[in-house]
Write a structure and sequence with these properties.
Helices cover about 40% and strands about 20% of the residues. Strand 5 and strand 6 form a beta hairpin. Strands 3-2-1-4-7-6-5 form a seven-stranded mixed beta sheet. The radius of gyration is 27 Å and the shape is elongated.
């Protein structure tokens, strides 16, 4: 095919080849630009503003129901007119090590610690070993100072006074039947739930605790 051949005399195949030969750079650049714009617009439209984070550490959860539970938490805390604001539910799996003890893998530990340091985690449910280790470092809020929480009737985890913490209640045992956690298959028995001390939106944390524990 010669470049100076009239388009009207070309076959369809020749026209496609001609356009591709002489305009492929323009076409490629155009496609890339459109893809970038589409990706940018999509990120703006679908961007979520996570204002609450409930992290769970355990050995099992029903991942198929986790997103549904996240939607329920969002609705309970933020209502239906929430805009882009959303609650986040994240599960970190404990795996049995060679010593027979359950522990988090290094990647999960790093991710969780980074999120806690960044003040992104509000409430955490975890095993007692990890709770005690973190609580002694001042990771959790003293619940005795929260007048909205009626802890009577709940088994709690108390800490004595030390260099990093004042004596008080820092966790609530998940030893009662919990319909919400049952629905997502979370192994909550022998677990503790607590408010992360440096978390943002403490009002939402208190509201969540009262809801998830059916606290009057």
């Amino acid at each position: 095919m010669k470049p100076n051949k009239w388009m009207k005399d070309m076959t369809f195949k020749e026209k496609v080849e001609y356009i591709w030969d002489y305009y492929k750079i323009h076409i490629i650049v155009g496609v890339v630009v459109i893809a970038i714009i589409a990706s940018f617009v999509n990120s703006i439209i679908n961007n979520k503003d996570y204002v609450f984070d409930f992290s769970l550490i355990g050995t099992s959860i029903n991942f198929d129901k986790e997103m549904s539970f996240q939607s329920t938490v969002t609705r309970e805390l933020l209502g239906t007119d929430k805009g882009k604001k959303q609650a986040l539910v994240e599960f970190y799996m404990l795996t049995k090590g060679s010593d027979g003890k359950y522990k988090l893998d290094p990647t999960s530990v790093q991710k969780l610690m980074v999120k806690i340091s960044a003040q992104e985690v509000n409430i955490i449910a975890l095993d007692k070993d990890n709770f005690n280790a973190l609580a002694k470092q001042g990771a959790f809020m003293n619940l005795d100072s929260i007048k909205e929480l009626d802890l009577s009737g709940f088994k709690t985890e108390r800490l004595p006074s030390s260099k990093d913490v004042k004596a008080g209640t820092y966790g609530i045992d998940l030893n009662k039947k919990n319909k919400y956690l049952d629905e997502i298959g979370y192994d909550y028995h022998d677990k503790v739930i607590a408010i992360v001390s440096n978390s943002q939106n403490k009002d939402l944390s208190i509201k969540f605790l009262k809801w998830i524990l059916d606290m009057k």
